[in-house]
Structures are given as structure tokens and as C-alpha cells.
Design brief:
alpha+beta; single chain; 4-stranded antiparallel sheet; 6-stranded mixed sheet
Length: 365
């Protein structure tokens, strides 16, 4: 394995010479740690100022053969270009994802995804549960079907134990998590041990920082993941603040891979955390509790402000009539998260269904 920093130094020389976005940023710093972080808002601003593709392009535009667009869940979508070499690099990164999920030559892969400018071959956990819901309505028994493995990304759900359990039970298959970003690449995946998400450290440099102080966090401490990709020379990202929070472990994995793992997957987004009466909560923690209750078909989280305090309320669609499930769910949230929630039973089919990334959290100020 080539030392990733040696590989980075070679890329750096090319970017200083040819890439308008990174040329200035990379010129002066003496060490890797002195290079400024790149943020998504800087990329959005760059594309606004230099439409339509911005200045993070190392080559003339005719060298690019693919265009992709971010989902726009958190604002204006980014457009992202790839050269033939960058696209081949994506495919190599995805090969690691398949290898981790034990997908082999001879397997048939069904892509549960609509083909738009959004990049991906997987299904979100939300969409997988939606497919299972429709299958049940149509009397199709997925468990008896041939699906052996499902691979998910786009939301942390497949690493949320209760969401994973529901998908596995619905499909009669083993469910694997995978993480990637349109502007970064397919950087993480689960191996057969299903003990955290491996970061593909052949192709990415990973750092964990405190999002407040921007200093590195101690190993085993929750931090924001900062990534650098090493094989996407046409449209690279150097020290990119992903906004994804996690805990990185360098303990060896039983699968034999040496790559670090994000324990429990992506634990939340730095910009997603909500504070309810002094308690910090991530939507993924709420989801893990809601999914324990099999009668809940779909749900939405609303945070509103009353007398300067944030209040949590949940809307739930239930399989059958309400019964005592509402009370049990309320007790479960209070016991596990130490917060009080108002829970409202809403009619079946009234909450939005999501094919791309779900937006179940709404903050009303
Ligand atoms: Zn492993």
C-alpha cells in the first residue's frame, strides 16, 4: 500500500498548477494539517459565483464525461463532474462495498433506484421499508423470495439496529450499510462482521475533529468526519468537512481489514442535533426507538418552540388501531432519552413517503 500522504503530495502538485479552487489553498501550507478545511457552503458559493460547475475542476470541461447532483436535502444541490478516470475510481470504491457485503460474481443485482442525476445504486432504508409495505399490500412474500443481501445508503438507517432488524425481517435477507457522498465518493461500507463501517483508507484520508473547536478529537471520542479523496483528481475534495458525526476505532476488525471503522455507522449530522429541554438528541436515536414498535408504519418528528423551550412531538401511522402503542412509545422515549414527547396518531397514508433521503424531522421556530 502506498502511503496516502505520499500519494496526496503528488496530487497536490497537480492541483496547485491546474485547479483554480485548490491552487491558492494548497500553495502555502507546510503540513497537511495546515491546509484549510473545505466546507459545503464554500462549494455552493463557488458554483453560484462561477456557474454552472464552479472552479473545482482540474482539467478543461471537455475532459469530463459524467455529471451528478447532490440530493439537495440540506439546501441548494451541488453539480459534480467526473472524468473517465474519476468514474473508474468510483467503480473501484463500489467494488469494495460489494466485497464487504459478500456480493460475488454470478450474483444478480437489482437496483431499487430511479435513475436521475443523483448518484447511487442502492436503496435508502426508508425506501426498502416502503417496498416491503407495498409488497405486503400486494400479497408478495419477500421472505420466501430469492433476495439474500440488501445494501443501503443515503441515511444512517441500516446501522440503526432496530431499522436494520425490520428490513432484514421484511426481506428475509442480510442488510448492509454503506456511506458515500456525491461530492466525495463511496468511502465507507460494512464487512461481514457488521461491526461498524470501514473507511476505505486506500482511497480516502480520514480525520475526526471537534466541530466547535476544529481540533482533532481523541480516538474513541465522537467527532465530525473530515475526508480527503485520493483518486478523484478531476474534481477533488481536500480536508472536506462532511458534517457526519461518528466515533472512529482503529481496533483490528475480525475480517482482517486494517481500515479504521466508524462504530455504529454515522451517528448523526452536525447540523441535525436537536436540544430538547437541555438534552441533546439525534433523530437517529428517536428512529431506533420508534422502529422497535412494529405497528408503526411511518413517522415524522416535529420540534417546536413553546415559551423558549423546545418540545418534541411525533406523528405516527399505525398498522391497526391505536390501542396502547402510543402510551408504550411515549414511555419508551422518556425512559431511553429522558425527554417527553407528544405523540399523535395520524391516518394511514397521510405522512410523506420518501424514495431518496427521508426528511422526517421538521423544526418549527
Ligand atoms: Zn471488518
Amino acid at each position: 500500500m502506498i502511503n496516502p500522504f505520499e500519494r496526496f503530495d503528488k496530487i497536490r502538485e497537480i492541483l496547485i498548477e491546474r485547479n483554480r479552487f485548490y491552487s491558492k489553498r494548497l500553495k502555502d501550507p507546510k503540513t497537511f494539517e495546515e491546509i484549510p478545511f473545505t466546507t459545503k457552503s464554500e462549494l455552493v458559493e463557488d458554483q453560484t459565483q462561477n456557474p454552472p460547475f464552479g472552479t473545482d475542476l482540474t482539467y478543461p470541461v471537455e475532459n469530463y464525461v459524467r455529471i451528478h447532483q447532490t440530493s439537495g436535502t440540506a439546501g441548494k444541490p451541488l453539480a459534480w463532474l467526473d472524468t473517465k478516470e474519476s468514474w473508474d475510481w468510483w467503480l473501484r470504491c463500489w467494488a469494495e462495498v460489494y466485497s464487504g457485503a459478500n456480493v460475488r460474481a454470478g450474483d444478480r443485482v437489482y437496483v431499487a433506484f430511479s435513475f436521475g442525476p443523483f448518484i447511487g445504486f442502492w436503496a435508502t432504508p426508508t425506501y426498502a421499508l416502503r417496498l416491503a409495505e407495498v409488497a405486503a399490500q400486494q400479497g408478495i412474500d419477500l421472505v420466501q423470495g430469492p433476495i439474500r443481501t440488501t445494501v443501503h445508503a443515503g441515511e444512517p438507517g441500516a446501522s440503526i439496529p432496530e431499522t436494520r432488524r425490520r428490513i432484514q425481517e421484511a426481506f428475509g435477507a442480510r442488510t448492509f450499510d454503506h456511506v458515500g457522498m456525491t461530492e466525495m465518493g463511496a468511502y465507507g461500507f460494512e464487512c461481514e462482521m457488521q461491526s461498524g463501517l470501514h473507511i476505505n483508507e486506500d482511497e480516502f484520508i480520514v480525520e475526526m475533529i471537534d466541530p466547535g473547536t476544529l481540533r482533532p478529537v481523541d480516538p474513541g471520542t465522537k467527532g465530525e468526519m473530515v475526508l480527503t479523496n485520493l483518486g478523484r483528481l478531476g474534481s477533488p475534495l481536500i480536508r472536506y468537512r462532511t458534517g457526519d458525526l461518528g466515533v472512529l476505532s482503529r481496533e483490528p476488525c475480525a475480517c482482517g481489514r486494517q481500515w479504521a471503522r466508524l462504530m455504529g455507522g454515522v451517528l448523526g449530522r452536525a447540523d441535525d442535533m436537536i436540544t430538547i429541554r437541555g438534552v441533546n438528541v439525534f433523530p437517529s436515536a428517536i428512529e431506533n426507538i420508534v422502529r422497535r414498535h412494529s405497528q408503526v408504519v411511518e413517522f415524522a418528528i416535529e420540534v417546536s418552540r413553546r415559551r423558549e423551550m423546545h418540545e418534541l412531538s411525533l406523528k405516527v401511522e399505525l398498522e391497526n388501531s391505536a390501542g396502547e402503542i402510543i402510551e408504550r412509545l411515549r414511555a419508551d422515549i422518556s425512559k431511553n432519552l429522558n425527554i417527553r414527547a407528544t405523540i399523535e396518531h395520524v391516518p394511514a397514508g397521510s405522512l410523506p413517503r420518501f424514495e431518496l433521503k427521508s426528511r422526517r424531522l421538521r423544526v418549527v421556530d
